Every structure is written in C-alpha cells, then in structure tokens.
Amino acid sequence: MADTEQPPTPPPSDDNSTPAPPASGGGSLFAANEKIVKINVAEEIKNSFLDYSMSVIISRALPDVRDGLKPSQRRILFAMHELGVLPNRKHLKCAKIVGETMGNYHPHGDQAIYPTLVHMAQPWAMRERLVDGQGNFGSVEGDPPASMRYTEARLAPLGAVLMEDMDRDTVDFVPNYDETRMEPTVFPAAFPNLLVNGGTGIAVGMATNIPPHNLGEVIDGICAQIDNPAITIPELMRHIRGPDFPTGCMVCGLEGIREYFHTGRGSVKVRGKIGIEELKGNREQLVITEIPFNVNRAALVSRIAELVNEKTPGLTDITNIRDESDENTRVVIELKRDAVAKVVINNLYQLTQLESSFAVNMLAIDRGRPKTLNLKEIIACYIEHRREVVLRRTRFDLRKAEERAEILEGYLVALANLDEVIRIIRSSSNREEARIRLLAFEFTRAQVEAYGIRIRNEARLTSGRYLLSELQVNAILDLRLYQLTGMEIDKVEAEYRKLIAHIEDLLDILAREERVMAIIKAELQAIKAKYATPRLTELVPDEGEIAIEDLVANEGVIITITHKGLIKRTNISSYRAQRRGGKGVIGMATREVLVVEGEDRDFIEHLFTASTHDFLMFFTNTGRVYVERVLEIPDMGRAAKGRSIANLLELRPEEKIAALIRIQSRTGPNREDLTWESPEFVFFATQKGIVKKTALSEFAHVHRGGIIALQIEENDTLIDAKLTNGNNEVVLITADGMSIRFHEEDVRPMGRQAVGVWGIRLEPQDSVVALAVVIPDATLLVAGENGVGKRTEFEEYRRQSRGGKGIITMKTTERTGRVVGALTVRDEDQIMLITAKGQMVRTFVREIRQTGRNASGVKLIELEEGDILQAIAPVISEKDEEAAENSQPASTGENPPA
Questions:
Q1: Which class is 387-511 in CATH?
Q2: Backbone torsions φ then ψ of 825, nearest 5 degrees
Q3: Is the per-residue pLDDT at 887 higher than 60?
C-alpha cells in the first residue's frame, strides 16, 4: 500500500499564535492564513483601560495648566474665532457655533458641546466670562438654557484675549480629527485663565476642582513672582488673598486657603450673606443677598421652607419666606417679633446649603501629564508659557521684519542704480530672462551704499560684489512706475531705517531675559487695567482664627449717626468731590415720618471720618464712654438708613452720642483692655462752657457697657471731645459767634470722675457748639446754619486765659444763622457738609475764601427751602492715609487723616 502524502510540518513559532483550524463542513469562521493569538485577559483589560483612562484624562476632562481650558472649551472658542464672532461683531446663533465645532474639531455630539458653550457664558458660573451670550442661558436656580436654535453668542473680550497673537506662530497647531484642517494645542493665554476662572472635571481615577480667583490679584501675584522667583507662598498671599467666586458670598477661615495654596489640596468653608432689616413694630427680617458658589437658589429656598414646615428646632421663629430675586439674589425670611436674628442665622448656616464646603484639588495637565500643583507652581507654569509665547512671537516678527527689510534693501539698491536696472529689464525678452540677468548682475559696494545702506549680511558680498536675492529680484520686477518718484523713494528709505531699528530691538528682546519678563509684566498690567474688577467674595476669619482686621482693607470711611440713633459706615469713595455751592448728593434716606405736632423727620446729627482698622471712642451726652472698632460698625450704602446704635453699643435709655474720637490701632488693644500707652489726653467741652482734661491712659478696661468719662452737672451736656498732646492750644466756639483761645496747660489733668473747670463764660442764651485744636499752619473754619462759612487764620485769635467771655469769631446775622460747627483745616483738606434733610456735599477747603474774624463768609452749600446745615466734618485724603500708614503718628485732636 502506497504511503499517504502528509502536509509539511510548520516551523516552530516563538509566539503564542497558532494557525487557524482547517475548515470543516460548509466553511470556516476564520480567514485564510489567520492566526489565533493567546492573550492574558486580565492584562488586556488592564492595558485597554489604561489607554482609555489616559485619553479621558488628557483629551477630555482636565484643563491645561497653561490656558486653563479643556479640549472641548478650547475647540469651541477656536471655532468662534474662525467664524469671526469677535466681541465687536454681532452675535451668531449658537446652533451655527455648535455645528462648526462638531463638524470641524470636536465630533462628540451637540449634547456635549452646547452645555460647555452655555457654561462659559453664565456670569454665576464664570468669574470672568469667555463667551458673551444673548438669550436664555439658564439661571442660578438651575433653569435650563433655551435650545441652541434660539440663543446667540459671541466671544467675550477676555475670551478673545486668550487667542491674541495666535496667528504669529506663538503656539503649535496639529491636524484635527479628520486631518482636514489644523487646530491649536493650547492658546497663547494673555491672562491666567486657570486661576481666574478655575475649573472642574471628573476623569478616570482622578478629578479636579479649582476655585476662581480675582483677575487683578492674580496678575499682581504673577508680577511679584516674576520680580522675585524665590517668593514664598505667604508672600504671594499678600497679593492673591484667596478664592473670588462669581456669586460673591463669604469664605470663612484662612487655614483652608493656606492649605491649598501650599499643597494644591484643601477645603474652604463658603457662606452666603444674610442681612438683617428692621420692620415696623420692632420686628426684623432676614434677607439673603448672596448664596454659595454652585448652590441652586430655588432648591435652597425650598429646603428652608421644608425645614420650617417640619418645625425643625432653631428655625421655628421663621414665619414666612419668599423669593424676591430678579437678576440679583434677594430671599426674604420674616421672623417672629421676639426672635433673635443671629440665632436663626446660625441655624440656617448649620442646617442648609447657605454654608457649604468647596473641596479644592488643583489638578491640571502639565507637559502632557496630570499633576497636582500648588499656587506657586501654577504661576511658574504660566510664566514659562508666556515666556515661550513672547519668544516665539518675537522670532516670528523678526522673520517678517527681515523679509521686508531684504525687499526694501533690494529696492534701494535698484533705485541707486536705476539706469542700469532699467537697461537690463528693457534689453530682456521676457520676465524670466530679466530675473536671471538681475540675479547674475554684480553691484559694487559703492553702488550698494549710495543711499547710505548698511549691508546687513556681509555673506551676501561675493568678492566684494553684491548680488540680489530671488526675493529682491521678484520685488524689483513687481515695482510700479509711480514708486520711482522722489516722494516714494523717501518713503522707502524711511521705512527701511525704521525697520532696521525694529529688528535691532527684536534681537535685543531675544538676547535679554529681563526684557522678555518686562514684556510679560507690561501686557498683564494692561489687561488688569482694562478688565480687572473689585473682589466679590469677602474673606472673614473662622472661629478661633486671626482677627478680622487682618482681612479687611484699611480704607477711609464716613460714619454717620442720626438723631434717632441710626449708625452706619460708608466707604469714602461713595461720595464725589463737588465744587463749593453744589447741590450735593443724597446722603441718607431718612425715615419718612408724618409731620405732626411734636414729631419730626429723622436727620443726621453726627458725621465722622476714620479708617476701618481704627477704634472709635463714643462719648455720650451724659459723660460715659464706649469703645468699638470701626470695622464692627455696619457697612451700608450711601442711601441706606443705618442700624440702631443700640444694636452696637449697650447705651442707657437717656443716653445719646455727643462726641467721637478716633484712635489709631497702634498696639492692637483688646476690647476688655484698651490700654493705649501714649502721653495723650482727652480734652472735653460741655454746652455750658465747662472743660476738662484726662489722660488717655485713664480709659483702660473699657467694657461693652461703657465707663464714666466725666461727671456732667445738671442741665448741662457734653458737646465734644478731642485728643491733645499736652502742649496744644484749644478754641471754644459758641452758637452766637463768640470764641476763646487758651493753652491746655491752663487745665490741669483730672480723673474720670471729675467735673472740670470753666472754659468760657457764656451769655444766658448762648451755648458752646464746637471745640477746635490750634495748628499753626492751619486755619479755623466756621460754618453757620444757613450754609455760610469762612476761614480765619489762628493769628487773629489772641491767646487768653480760660474762663473769660472771649472774642467774636463770626458775626452772626439772618444771612448766616447761628454757628453750627468749626474745624481746624488746611488748604489741601476736604470737608463734608451735611444738612438736616440728608444732603451731603464734599468740597475742597481751598475753595473757601479766608476772611477776618468779623466777616460773615461765603456760601458753602446751596440749601433747599426749609433745610439747614447740620454739621461739618473733615474727610480723609488718600495722601494723608498713605503717610499715616507709613509713620503711624499719634492722633491729634482734630480727627487726623488715617
């Protein structure tokens, strides 16, 4: 029997593959010559999941540390840039933008693209919006945006700033998903978007949650790190104070901020803002004006209502809640008559999302890898990115400038040898022959330098001869006849010399690192000047942390107290300086009371200027003193009524504030131990002409309930108190226009329990209205109730012994009215005039004419019918504020600038 033919034996294989089994029956599941590879399933799943997770991390979920954008955000903004939807152009339908993005750069569906576009246009979601939306883009209450066929959008100014100089080879471009066009891998990012707008994203196995910060503060911090690369994070925190959420609110505690600034991870406690408003019938209501970042307002209101309906302990004093919000948040919570507002507020923070935590994880893509970065590292990455952008932009500009300079150089060489060039061109049969002959023509150095041209590239000279380049020859052949006129030749020369200087400047930038950094700083400062906005989020200390004054800016404020005891402080920038005689601005919406017999409208009775870090000593008409920090006084707007002073100070029923003294915080005293170590005195004056001097050190241990400052006799009242240094002279001014000047040494120091001595002897109908401290280079400003005032040099007031009748300081007439106040002022000072109806005028002292003692004066303020001037007070100037902050001088008796 013949042997059966056997198939050849396959060679041994070094892999795990085996040939596919032969087909049996009607066919095979495997293609011809297909191999089956044995794999480890666990290893394959591991590798595949790793590839997937890296794709999600790098290409989808995490922002780039350089421009702070995820790929989807970057592609939407780039598509808008390509569509020309710039800030100065009209809005474009969002459907068009989404379609352009999806078709060209981001093929992931409109349900992924449109929400990203909407997010970049929401002012409550972005600290600085990148997209300017028009239409319904949702709400802070969680309402969805309108369909993209209804809404429109364009780039916001800062969105366009992110892409500035992108056409100057500042960043790398790569092919898009189908390789039909190019897209940028990163934006030039002229402002630090990652820190300013923050970012959130959930990847695979990691997530990022970066809070937004204030644009101006971040730019200041970057500039500080450029100036000092070794800067520490505590030093950076002097510039970048903490997060700045677009919804405002408060961050309680600095420890969480320090932690994430140092490590890139941390948690900050965010609280909404709740104010207290007084109602008729001695009732109060709470008003929520700001809610924490990423909290749904409608859900918050609904949750509070649920807790109230469930009679949750701590919230049973709430009688009603209503949402009065429009574009601004205003949720009103009405309380029972005997409810304690602060207790309800604390329970709202504890039981609702009015207090929430923001968990910070500053994870971003750095050099293609996810990395948790601290504040200094993020800034360093941004500086390095901007450095690369500036260098690449400079090289690009240099290339363009050199190309243009080469063309202009060729023009000038041709113009210097015009006859020869024209001869070559005319004798050529076509353009190509002319081009070849011009390329071969050799110019001597003398011919080249006829116009004073400096040959930029000596390598262009061959054996002492100059040869035109291909670029130059083509440009010469493209010259038009009118460009051969004398005027055009002069233009070419001027442009060439200007271009040479520009090239030298660009080369200097590339050669010197300090110039690159200076350019980065200058561009950032320009963006800050144009786009930076004030901080929205307030930073306050948490319980057990540092004092609040370390977090509050030391700035000038105006403090007002009304006749009915309402007090407030208002930032001094709220009042505009006006010229003498102006109508003024409404300073307070005083309480509207029906004018019936025995009842009158409320009016401002006291006005004082100070700085937020100072202390105020409140002296009452009965001779008691209370002490409070300026920053503890309610901060309200110019038109606000103020809060009852009884909520600030524990005043007795018969007490009213008569005088205030500002004390600079030199030793940082505590409330229970206000011991100012200084040689100063408090000098008192009463309405009946009694004066007294007490050492400032006597006012130690001032408790919240106050202490006795001086004894007041029956039918008398304290009218003013000033700080003196022991060697001052003082002037008492009366309502009938009399005055007396004497040295404070005439009044011996007395204890707090003493009554005092006579300062001036008054006529029966007269009374003391002001106490002023004499300053040699200053003048005494006296104002009457009819808005008339004057300035007089102190030299016109001779020094007398205390206890006399005094001399005339202002001749009071029907035109002037009785004297209402007096101040020691200088020409550079400003004063605030306030009337009984609440009108305020801020004016410069130099505009008030100096006159003699017997003169009536000039008009200071234009009064409405029935109105009278109520008070005058000095205003803190910025110059004096800065000088005092540097030197911390002792306070003088005339309410010195901070």
A1: mainly alpha
A2: -135, 160
A3: no
pLDDT beyond 70 at 775: yes
Listed in order, strand segments (DSSP E) in 185-272 are 199-202, 207-210, 250-252, 265-271
CA-CA distance, 373 to 259, in Å (whole number)?
A: 12
Q: Report the alpha-carbon distance of residue 708 to residue 752 in Å, rounded.
A: 6
CA 310 – CA 328 distance, rounded (Å): 29
Q: How far apart are CA 307 and CA 324, in angstroms?
A: 20
Rounded CA separation 759/766 (Å):
14
- Which tokens belong to 672? 């229970």
- Ordered by start, the domain boundaries in the chain are 69-188, 273-353, 387-511, 552-887
Give 619's contacts (C-beta < 8 A, 6+ positions apart): 625, 657, 658, 659, 660, 661, 684, 709, 718, 721
**For domain 69-188, which CATH number applies: 3.20.20.140, 3.40.1190.20, 3.90.199.10, 3.40.50.12500?**
3.90.199.10
More confident residue, 735 or 830: 735
Nearest-CA neighbor of 864 among 845, 830, 840, 831? 840
CATH annotation of 552-887: 2.120.10.90
pLDDT for 588:
45
- Topology at the third CATH level for domain 273-353: Gyrase A; domain 2 (3.30.1360)
β partners of residue 874: 831
Q: What is the mean pLDDT of the segment spanning 640-652?
A: 78
Residue 718 · residue 620 · CB < 8 Å? yes
Q: Give the active site residues.
A: 150
Dihedral Cα 775, 777, 782, 787, nearest 10 deg: -140
Q: Are strands 331-335 and 624-629 parallel, antiparallel or unpaired?
A: unpaired
Residue 61 has pLDDT above 80, yes or no: no
For the entire predicted model, the pTM comes to 0.60
- Helices 94-104 and 71-83, packing angle to 10 deg: 110
- Residues 258-281 have pLDDT tens digits of 999 999 999 999 999 998 888 877
Averaged pLDDT of the chain? 82
Please, are residues 781 and 831 in contact by the beta-carbon 8 Å criterion?
A: yes
- Cα angle 768, 771, 773; round to 5: 155
Long-range pairs for 169-173: beta carbons < 8 A, 24 or more residues apart: 169/392, 169/393, 169/395, 169/396, 170/388, 170/389, 170/392, 170/393, 170/396, 171/389, 171/392
Per-residue model confidence as pLDDT tens digits over 524-543: 999 999 999 999 998 887 75
- Whether residue 62 contacts residue 202, with contact meaning beta carbons closer than 8 Å, is answered with no
Distance CA 289, CA 538 (A): 13
Tell which residue, 687, 696, 602, 612, has the closest CA to residue 645: 602
Residue identified by tokens 């009213």 is 656
| Higher pLDDT among residues 2 and 275, named by residue | 275
What are the residues whose beta carbons fall under 8 Å from the beta carbon of 280, sequence distance 6 or more? Answer: none
Task: Record the tokens describing residue 647, joined without a space.
Answer: 């909520």
Indicate if the pLDDT at residue 737 is higher than 50: yes
In this predicted structure, what is the pLDDT of residue 643? 80
Quote the CA–CA distance of 505 and 510 in Å, as a whole number. 9
Please name the residues in contact with 359: beta carbons below 8 A apart, sequence gap of 6 or more: 209, 266, 267
Q: DSSP letter at 60?
A: I
The mean-pLDDT minimum among 4-13, 270-279, 698-707 falls in 4-13
Residue 452 has pLDDT above 70, yes or no: no
CB neighbourhood size of 430 (10 A): 7
